[in-house]
Known about the structure:
single chain; mainly alpha; A middle domain of Talin 1; two-stranded antiparallel sheet; 12 helices; 76% helix
Amino acid sequence: MVWLMLVLGLVILLVAGDLLVRGAVNLSLRLGIPALIVSLTIVAFGTSAPELIISIKATLEGVAGIAMGNVVGSNTANVLLVLGIPAMIAAMETRDCETRKTYMIMLAASLLFIALAFTGEFGIWQGAVLLLGLGLFLLDAVRDANKHRKSANDDVDLEGADPSISMFKILLFLTLGLIGLPLGADILVVNGSIIAYYYGVSETVIGLTTIMAATRRQADVALGNVIGSNIFNLLGIIGVASMFGAIPVDQRFLDIDLWIMLAAALVLLPFVFLGWKITRVWGIVLTAIYITYIASLIH
Length: 299
C-alpha cells in the first residue's frame, strides 16, 4: 500500500504540474506578457513547482535529504533522461537554439551551488545568496526580452498555449494545479520516508531517484527549457526551501552526486556551442548513463 500511495503522489504531482503550466502560460498570454519572459520564468517555474513544493515539505518534515536529492536528481535527470529519451525517438537539432548565455548562467549557478554545499548546509544566508542569483537572472531575462521584444523570439511556440481557451478554464487549471501540488507532495514525502525507513534506503537516494524521474512529463521539452528549469532548480528551490529550515548536505553529495550533476551539465557543451545534433545514438548514450547512475544509487 505504501508503494501504491507513493505512485499516487507522483501521479497527482504529474497532473497538477501540467495543469499549473497550462494555466500559467495561457494567463500570461491573455495578459499580453511577452512569450520570451513566459518561457524563461513562468514555464520554468511551473515545471519546477513540484520540486519546490516537495523540497519545502521535506524540509518542514525534517527529511532534508529528500530536498537536496530532489534538486540534484532533477538536474541530472533533466540532461540525461529528459533529453535522452526524446532523442531516441527523434533527433533534435540544436543549431538554432540561442542558449549559450543561459547555458553559461546554468554552469555558474551549478558552481555556486556546489561551493555553498561545501559550507555544510543550506541555511538562511546560503539561501539568500541563491535567491539573489535568481533575482539577477530574472532581471537579465526581462532586459533581454525588452531588447528583443519585436524579434522572432517573441513568437515562441509555448507548450500548453491555446488562444481559444476561456478565462474560466485558465483559472480552473491554476486552482487545480495549486491544490494538487501540495497534496501530491504530502503523499509522496510521507510515503517516501516510510519506504526509506522500512527498506533501509536513505532519504537522499529516494530524492535522487523516484521524484524527478517520474514527474518530468515533457517528452518534447526544448534544450532551452531544460537549461532554464535547471537554473530555477539550483537557485530557487533550495533558496526558498532553506528559508523554512536548514538543509544539511550529506557527505555523499559532496563526494559523488554534485559532481555527477556538474558532469551532466558539461555534457551539453558541444550541443550548445558547436550545434551538434542530439541524435538517437546520443539519446541512447545519455539514457544509458542515467540508468547506470540510478543503478549505482540503489546498489
